[in-house]
TrEMBL record, chain A:
<dbReference type="GO" id="GO:0015833">
    <property type="term" value="P:peptide transport"/>
</dbReference>
<protein>
    <submittedName>
        <fullName>ABC transporter ATP-binding protein</fullName>
    </submittedName>
</protein>
<dbReference type="GO" id="GO:0016887">
    <property type="term" value="F:ATP hydrolysis activity"/>
</dbReference>
<dbReference type="Pfam" id="PF08352">
    <property type="entry name" value="oligo_HPY"/>
</dbReference>
<keyword id="KW-0067">ATP-binding</keyword>
UniProtKB/TrEMBL annotation, chain B:
<feature type="transmembrane region" description="Helical">
    <location>
        <begin position="292"/>
        <end position="318"/>
    </location>
</feature>
<feature type="transmembrane region" description="Helical">
    <location>
        <begin position="147"/>
        <end position="168"/>
    </location>
</feature>
<dbReference type="InterPro" id="IPR045621">
    <property type="entry name" value="BPD_transp_1_N"/>
</dbReference>
<keyword id="KW-0472">Membrane</keyword>
<feature type="transmembrane region" description="Helical">
    <location>
        <begin position="7"/>
        <end position="25"/>
    </location>
</feature>
Automatic annotation (TrEMBL), chain C:
<dbReference type="GO" id="GO:0016887">
    <property type="term" value="F:ATP hydrolysis activity"/>
</dbReference>
<dbReference type="InterPro" id="IPR050319">
    <property type="entry name" value="ABC_transp_ATP-bind"/>
</dbReference>
<keyword id="KW-0813">Transport</keyword>
<protein>
    <submittedName>
        <fullName>ABC transporter ATP-binding protein</fullName>
    </submittedName>
</protein>
<feature type="domain" description="ABC transporter">
    <location>
        <begin position="6"/>
        <end position="257"/>
    </location>
</feature>
UniProtKB/TrEMBL annotation, chain E:
<keyword id="KW-0813">Transport</keyword>
<protein>
    <submittedName>
        <fullName>ABC transporter permease</fullName>
    </submittedName>
</protein>
<dbReference type="InterPro" id="IPR050366">
    <property type="entry name" value="BP-dependent_transpt_permease"/>
</dbReference>
<keyword id="KW-0812">Transmembrane</keyword>
<dbReference type="Pfam" id="PF12911">
    <property type="entry name" value="OppC_N"/>
</dbReference>
Amino acid sequence: MSQQSALLQVNNLCVDYITDAGDVRAVSDVSFEIAPGEVFGLAGESGCGKSTVAFSISRLHKPPAFISEGEVLFDGKDVLAFSDQELQAFRWAQCSMVFQSAMNSLNPVLRVEEQFCDVLMAHEDISRAQAISRAKELLNIVDIHPDRLRDYPHQFSGGMRQRLVIAITLALKPKLIVMDEPTTALDVVVQREILQKIYQLKEQFGFSILFITHDLSLMVEFCDRIGIMYAGELVEVAPAKSIFKQPLHPYTYGLGQSFPPMLGPKKRLEGIPGHPLNLLEVPEGCRFQSRCEFKHARCERVATSLKELQHQHWAACHRHDSALAPITAEEVSLCKQQ
Amino acid sequence: MGFILRRLFFYLAAFMVAVVINFMLPRLMPGDPVTAMLGGRGAMMTYDQIEALRQTFGFVDGPLIQQFFSYVSSVFQGDLGTSVQSFPETVSTILGRAFGWTLFLTGAGTLLAFIVGSLLGILAAWNRGGWFDSIVSPLSLILQATPQLVFGLLFMFVFGVTLQWLPSGYAFSPELTPEFSWLFISDVAAHAILPVFTVFIVQLGGFLIPMRNNMINLLNEDYITMGKAKGLSQLRVMLNYGARNAVLPSVTSLSMALGMVIGGAMVVEVIFNYPGLGTVLYNAILARDYQLIQGQLLVMTLFMLFFNFMADILYLFLDPRLKHGGSA
Amino acid sequence: MQTAIIEANNIVKDFEISRQGLQRKSMRALNDVSFKLHKGRALAIVGESGSGKSTVAKIVAKMHKANAGQVLFNQRDINEFKGRKAELEYRSNVQMVFQDPFGSLNPVHTIFHHVARPLLLHNKFSKHELRDKVEFILEQVGLNPASETAQKYPHQLSGGQRQRVNIARNLAVGAQVMLADEPTSMLDVSIRLGILNLMEEMKSEQDLAMMYITHDIATARYLAEDIGVMYVGHMLEWGDTDEVIHHPQHPYTQLLVSAVPNPEQSIHGGTLAEERGEIPLWTPHSRGCPFAGRCKHVSEQCRQQLPPVVALSERHFVRCFLHS
Amino acid sequence: DSLAAERSELTLVAEQRTAWDRNFNPYLTANKRATTFQFIYEPLVVFNALKGNQAHYRLATAHEFSDDLKTIRFTIRDGVKWSDGEQFSAKDVLYSFEQIKKDPVLDTQALADRIESVSIEGENVVAIKLKNVDTTIANKIVRVPIVPQHIWSQIDSPTTFKNETPVGTGPFTEIDSFTAQLYVQCANPHYYDAENLDIDCLKMPQIATNDQLLAAAIKGELDWTSSFIPDIDRVLISANPSYNYWYPAAGSASFLVNFKSPNPGNREAFNDINFRRAFSMTVDRQAVVDIAGYGYWSTNQYASGLGEQFASWNNPQVDAEFGQYNRYDLEGAKQLLSDAGYKDTDGDGFLNTPSGAEISFKVIVPNGWSDFVSTAQIGVEGLQELGVDASVSTPEFVTLTENMKSADFDAAFTNYFGGATPYRYFQTGFHSSMADKDRFGAHHYADPELDSLIDSFTKTADSAEQVKIMQDIQYRIGANQTTIPTMSTVYLYQFNDKRFSGWFSEANPQAVPVVWPDQPERLLHVLALKPR
Amino acid sequence: MNFLKLLLGNRKASIGLVIVLFFVVLSVAAPLFSDYSPTKRVSRPHQSPSAEHIMGTTRMGRDVFAQLAYGGRTSLAVGFGAGALVIVLAIGFGITAGYFGGVVDEVLSSMMNIMLVIPQLPLLMVLAAFIGEASPLVIAIIIGCTSWAWSARVIRAQTMAIREKEFVSAAQVLGEPAWRIILVEILPNLISIIGAAFIGAVIYSIMLEATLEFLGLGDPTAVTWGIMLYNMSNTSAILIGAWWEVIAPCIAIAMVGAGLALMNFAVDEIANPALRSHTGLKRWKLKQAQRKKILEAGKQSLAKQQQVPL
Ligand SMILES: Nc1ncnc2c1ncn2[C@@H]1O[C@H](COP(=O)(O)OP(=O)(O)OP(=O)(O)O)[C@@H](O)[C@H]1O
Ligand SMILES: Nc1ncnc2c1ncn2[C@@H]1O[C@H](COP(=O)(O)OP(=O)(O)OP(=O)(O)O)[C@@H](O)[C@H]1O
Ligand SMILES: [Mg+2]
Ligand SMILES: [Mg+2]
């Protein structure tokens, strides 16, 4: 993790939701970085703050979300300190974004052409004709016939729309593309196609990706490194394979155990007991304590923080304060018997 | 174009219903127009004379169904009968003369309300919770909940009578003859200010609030966020991404609003002695000029249908999902 | 194996999708679909969105009426359950769990209402026993403490808890057949298994016949003994779950299984080999195999006629000319 | 503009409408312009009601009844020309009377049935032979428009003809300009009496409501109006002192009860003279005049309802005997009723008839006649003070007329005809043959003796006898309290002194000064005006 | 009841409610507030406001305040009565069309749409004129019978949306009869929309009644705000300068309208939380402003530092 090479560096990011009921810290002290060309995944169950992190990078939050602390360094510059003009220029040109569902991220009343042109012409000093020819190239890249530029979004199928969005994200050749659950609304077959396409494009253009999903299997398949979030905190960061094979945080383990396997013997899986944390009632100590099999006294009092427990493998869990062993199934069943 | 066809079919049906209502109403009512018209002089008239008058005014006797068909056939020939009060003027002539003024008054007032209301609505939504929103939005709603009659009387009283800043009657100064000259047009405009403003102010909330609410809902849509993420200017996101979509439901209410305004403008016309359909109807009602009343209701319905049709077309133009066979 | 409690034979279902004047256009949502449900077993139905999975369940739940074919409940045509009483009798045996835990509970009523209504409606319990029974059922589905939960409104529960209430309603009716339409697709990954496990328990303990609709093949394998793969209103392959998933015979099943995320491999490990065609809109006039447009083994025959059902084994069927 | 300033234009409001239609057909009742009669079509004679029906000869130079009173002869003026230059002659007059016989619609005065024949005798005498004797008929005959034969004989359908460029014998025949909001009608180039005419044009701005009229008047835009202006001293005169007004008395208006009321209790009360007198005594006539009439009206305490207009016909004996019942006297009314046996027997807070029947009635007034509604409300207030269950109801005019004609109502407030003599008032209001003809005789009280008295009036041309008849009529009605006289209305008339002089006024009471078209005297008025 | 609590918790709604309640109390308890009868002459005509007649008198010498208070009874009764009729009809038509769909819906929606394109006020005027001497009750009934279409359409749309909710399907599968589904499952979910429609209908009815009566189509002997306006205009109060007679009913109508409108605004916010501008938003704006300040200060100091020559 060399500081110099990082394209994006998020340091101690805190985001609050300011509501009538009180301030909710939806993202708490999150730090990670993404190297050029890297695919970094953020996983975690719904409401853990993944999208909130993603929105912070382009500063897209609107009320009640409020970035209260931290830095987002992009190529060494703090995005959070940008003026409105700087921000406008930064967005999309440096960092573009694919949203949760393609159905809703294209403007239904504008022709696709317009949605390409406006972004191209807003950032680059080109004529409309040039913008259109660029848009046609982009459509070619995602295997959509350029003639369809004059169509409206509703005339495309879900998968095609998602590819359109991807084409738009590529328009300015950004260095980073944030993908917030880009395929959740799609069928597995379409999902796979799109991810393959993205991967090809990444190889071709060399951008980095921040990839968000709660499908751990998919993430492991697609990402280089993965961060696992729980209740607004980053609880584990590690290379994809190692997080899958040897999770160091009980939550990561539980998440892994929530996906029944396609192969092998059928056995009863338990998932993670209890409910996700209500952010209005954050306990003292570890946030995962109420659902954790390994909870001990320390967890109730002392907050956790990310520590590099193995090479490139960071986790925030008191269980590892002494031992470094990954969680194993035997251990879990042992704990249960106690 | 199935959409348009469907609408046209509906309009025809609506029009027929209006025709039936129109036909039935006066026939359900007591008294007859000739007696009403003759008023105090009835004593001097012989039965023959009243009958003769009845004939001249075109009252058909005979079975109801026969009356109905003769009514329908004349309606479709554009013959709405003869006004009793303005005999021998035909209803069509009278309405034709007034039609343009009402079109102008309601059109200008509502269009203005639509444009200004929508813009203010967008601004209010964009700065939701700010001072602008928390003053303008409830205020416009309050204005909307106040009868046009109140504003009409108030404006008339303040600007027309007390301050005498603006003319408080007529469509143009009586001395002028209608012509296409700057003098005449500016005169018409001056005379239109108070009534148009009355129509405008009451309509404002009707467009502002829905626009604001639509827009607030829309601001949570992904494509708005995407617009912002694309680094487009605020204005562009606000108009091209927000307003373009938020305006759609408003277009529907535009056509509805016109319905209200046609009724409302009536009161305004009466208050400001504006020579539109409203004044005609009002006087026709006072004079119990049944033929004129009937024709009027029909024309007003046509008016509504026309505006609805315009709104449909506008909708089609604004929402591509309709044109291309989507379902919206 | 004992006789099926639900047996669907050759169901066809058309929906009117648009009408222009007198001209009606319809689509065929289900075409010649047959399956059986057995007590103590689950049938998973998988397929992409719009393939007709929910329609199958809705026909069995008598929310839609099939245009052709028949559904038998204990050998009786379900259309024979006519009139208020007979219909209630059928409904007390066949119940459904819906996809959306937020939408399937009425926000204005308490949990108590939701569980008590089926009890009252199907005369399962008298009024004074009601409270105890409701609480008993809520405990059964793991909603502890039951008396407290009963007083709550849906919005005061988490998604998983709500789905448990939905299952509790099924228990309250005492149905023998449970049709679960994507019961976990809107739930958090960490909670999904809890619900699946609860369904599994009910299936084995209460000897329920279950239909489990999902697009997640992995959970289908986890819960169901049998699986049916649907594509554009057709059941293209069905049979024993492991058999179908591990040895898919239909090109579509093969494509589907290969697309399932697999942490053991990388996404760039290969591309899906099939040529991407549009998913067709199936109408009563459409002909051939619905997958023909995307199938790499397509032949002229596939475009002309619907392949017949081929029994590969006693518990594995496929609808493909490759096997006939 | 300078041109307009040079010619003298008299601005008048002779009708209130929302738009002008160019229509000068004198036969149309509804929509001819109000400047058609008299100003375009000069009458034969103008009878001056204010001066005891004095005749001002116009197109005729004399008129007289034959001895049997069955023929009336008009001598036609020589040297009159139509405004297109054609000669006017007795033939045109004859033609005009033939016109009204042709089509009942043209017969706006309902004369066709009463005229036997019309003929020309000699050069210039038109003789009209009547079917029955009627000495009051000349008033009607002179209201028949005299039209040019050479024009109208070309018209196929006189009932729909709009006569946009009229040809007449009157002072203002030339339509100078015409829009829906304003028209100007200028002098007849061939007017026979041009030397008496000092005004060049009439200007008719379109005005729809009294409020608009008032606004224009305050600005000094109008010269001659006859509209209702509330609180005129404060609102108009103080704002524009060049305005004046004169409100001479006009017809009377009364409450009336239906002797044939469908409700037995009410009928019993209404047929009791004590009740009618008590009713009359509860009407606060002064309040009616002050409030409903803005002080313009005058109280009507003539027991017969004769009214100020016909003061010269008054029978003082009537007032001496029955006047006490026609003055506001609540206590007296209460006394009268309790003496007659009216008590609240059923304890509902309202009086019952001596036989114990329920009295409960509505006073009907036409919808929209707001001064009458106010009057009725004041009357009802008095009845309620008296303990009578009465209220006001405002049905549609048509409904009201039907109900009154068919005796399907209890009580009403109604106005009456005026005229040159009280004849028309008594004939339409009290002759039993009129009871089901219109709302005026709707008390449905039949008195054969009264009928014959009324009838005898038209059978004589002797004015002393006529006065005697009238006095007898008054006595019969007063003694019976057939009606409950309330007030006399007025002729509304305002004028602007600034641009013209010669206005009729209280100081110069030449004739009824009203500008409305049914007032032929306005021709005399316009001829009397001089530009300043 | 939740709904009521929410309503009371909203500032706009509370203000609106207070205004409306004020007028309700004023008119219901009119005899407590005014010793004068609204239909009796109690003074000289057109007296300007004084201690004795706090809002002056009319041409008829009646007390304006008494008329305002008593007139409120009828005007509000017509408003709420017609509003109730509108809402009952709208619920009937809207829910039936929305729930049953198909042909039923087609027929009922066509009826609604046709009602909507026939201009309201003119139709009402014609009806009122034809019926003649339209008493407030008659006016309320004809308003009710001709104004339901818009609300019905809104309710229909919402019913259709709710009908698609799975809890309705669940109730159907459970075997609940249609009437129970409509009344117990769907109707309670429509409360806020019905509330909004009802308030809207009340506003509309009050306005319409006043307008009709002002135009002279009502019963002039009734005491209502509309008739006050009618009498005012009949007696040229504006020109005479009897402003009190003009202002009093105008303000009353406008205030009640405003109060109801505020309540409606609040109902909208309650039904759609996204519309609420909560206190959190204020704090957010405050924080954002602070942050901007700090940032700018930081930049300035940075710029200054750079200017310092080394
Ligand atoms: N507008 C809001 N007001 C209040 N709290 C909010 C708001 N938006 C999000 N939150 C809270 O912030 C937390 C994080 O939300 P976020 O959308 O980042 O989650 P996520 O991980 O992206 O979830 P998902 O997988 O469902 O998209 C959640 O607990 C949520 O309750
Ligand atoms: N009521 C209906 N009217 C018309 N078409 C319908 C109706 N219900 C379903 N359809 C159509 O039938 C087809 C099958 O729908 P169905 O809901 O059964 O799909 P599904 O497999 O359950 O999809 P999903 O996974 O999205 O739930 C779809 O194309 C759908 O559009
Ligand atoms: Mg998210
Ligand atoms: Mg489905």
